[in-house]
Design brief:
Layout lengths: L7 E5 L2 E5 L13 H6 L22 H6 L10 H15 L7 H7 L14 E4 L3 E7 L14 E7 H14 L2 E8 L2 H12 L2 E8 L5 E6 L5 E6 L21 E4 L4 H7 L4 E5 L3 H7 L5 E5 L18 E5 L5 E5 L4 E4 L14 H14 L4 H16 L10
Length: 388
């Protein structure tokens, strides 16, 4: 779309000109008048080439999210095209962010284009979380004043579904919510953030949480109530997962995990290792924190083993290993802005990994892209960032 009254530079027949300038009519593809008369079909205006670079507020997101590309090797053209399409999705320059991916990935043969975006989903829980920003955590018996406070539909499912909505242009959350005021507020907020919510409603109160965010951005979480997780017996649109490109599994029963396996790519958190073992299926990737004892995973814990295991290590970056013996490490990604807090960074990493694997990236590139997704989450306040 061209904005009236705005001059923009373009490359035209090797000359740098401005759209809307007074340089006369654009030249024809063939400058020879005789040939133009002989071949009227050649009388087509030269193609306007937009300048390279972001044309939106997220300028420079290519390098921030995916890093600098190394010298191109044979066979990397398709992968780099995927990267370009992913960045267009991040920058909002492509109104159908997954449309090109559909053709590059060739998920299955089709006589016509079946999708307008990359299909993503999250299976997991939601918590209604109240946040309070304080200079430091209060010692026992102390009373402190919060400098900022807010509440959001958060938890692993809430965070990851909105993150995938940012990346793919659309996402579906399979979850369970309490049949009370907080459950309704969670449903309304996630829907307003662009997530398609498939929710079973439980009679128990909506699970809540309270989170301190200290002066260093570290979060300390207290959870109140039982976790509401989706179950395969819940009347949700589980069959739609068979047409989904990438799913991140946060929580649910073994049946819900088996339903999620219908997707082309399935990533899960090590927090639900017993559920994964019960389901007895192969994951495309397992994500765990190297510092959280509840996410411990050792080789042999799952049969079959995950195709990829990614271990996050906070400011130290992380490591990865594949079932076929490849392994490596990744450095911490540079923050694209000031640190807000650490809430949701791990689930954002996992959502980014699911998206990158769904886009066809190899393990090393996928974990690097996920690290940048997690870093970007560190610059957002709380679960979803400050409201516009």
């Amino acid at each position: 779309m061209v904005e009236l009254g705005v001059r923009r530079p373009f490359v035209l027949d090797g000359r740098l000109v401005e759209l809307g300038s007074d340089d006369g009519p654009p030249p024809l593809v063939e400058g020879d008048a005789g040939r133009d008369r002989e071949h009227p079909g050649a009388q087509v205006l030269s193609v306007l080439e937009p300048p390279v670079g972001a044309q939106c507020p997220q300028e420079g997101l290519l390098e921030r999210v995916f890093g600098r590309l190394s010298a191109e090797k044979p066979g990397e053209v398709a992968e780099h095209l995927v990267l370009a399409l992913l960045v267009e999705a991040f920058e909002g320059r492509n109104p159908d962010p997954g449309h090109g991916l559909h053709h590059v990935l060739k998920r299955r043969p089709a006589s016509e284009c079946e999708t307008a975006f990359m299909r993503t989903a999250v299976v997991g829980h939601v918590e209604w979380v109240e946040f309070a920003r304080v200079e430091r955590l209060p010692p026992p018996g102390a009373i402190i004043q919060a400098t900022e406070w807010w509440s959001e539909a958060a938890g692993g499912g809430g965070v990851a579904s909105v993150q995938l909505r940012r990346l793919a242009g659309a996402s579906t959350l399979y979850t369970a919510l309490g049949r009370d005021e907080l459950g309704e507020r969670a449903l309304e907020q996630l829907t307003a953030l662009g997530v398609a919510v498939e929710a079973a409603r439980h009679e128990e109160p909506q699970r809540r949480g309270f989170t301190f965010v200290d002066g260093d951005g570290e979060r300390t979480i207290t959870i109140i109530g039982e976790k509401h997780v989706p179950r395969a017996s819940d009347p949700l649109a589980w069959e739609a997962l068979g047409d989904t490109d990438a799913v991140y599994f946060v929580s649910g029963d073994a049946g819900a995990l088996r339903a999620a396996r219908r997707a082309r790519v399935l990533v899960a958190t090590a927090r639900v290792l017993p559920t994964i073992a019960e389901a007895g299926l192969e994951l495309d990737a397992l994500v765990r924190s190297g510092s959280d004892p509840s996410e411990r995973y050792d080789a042999g814990d799952l049969a079959p083993p995950p195709r990829l295991v990614a271990v996050t290590a906070g400011r130290s970056g992380g490591a990865w290993q594949t079932a076929d013996g490849r392994s490596g490490s990744f450095p911490p990604a540079e923050l694209p802005g000031p640190l807000e807090d650490t809430y949701g960074a791990g689930d954002s990493f996992a959502a980014g990994l699911a998206y990158a694997l769904g886009a066809g990236l190899e393990a090393e590139d996928a974990v690097a892209a996920a690290a940048r997704t997690g870093a970007e989450a560190l610059t957002r306040r709380g679960a979803h960032g400050r409201p516009p």
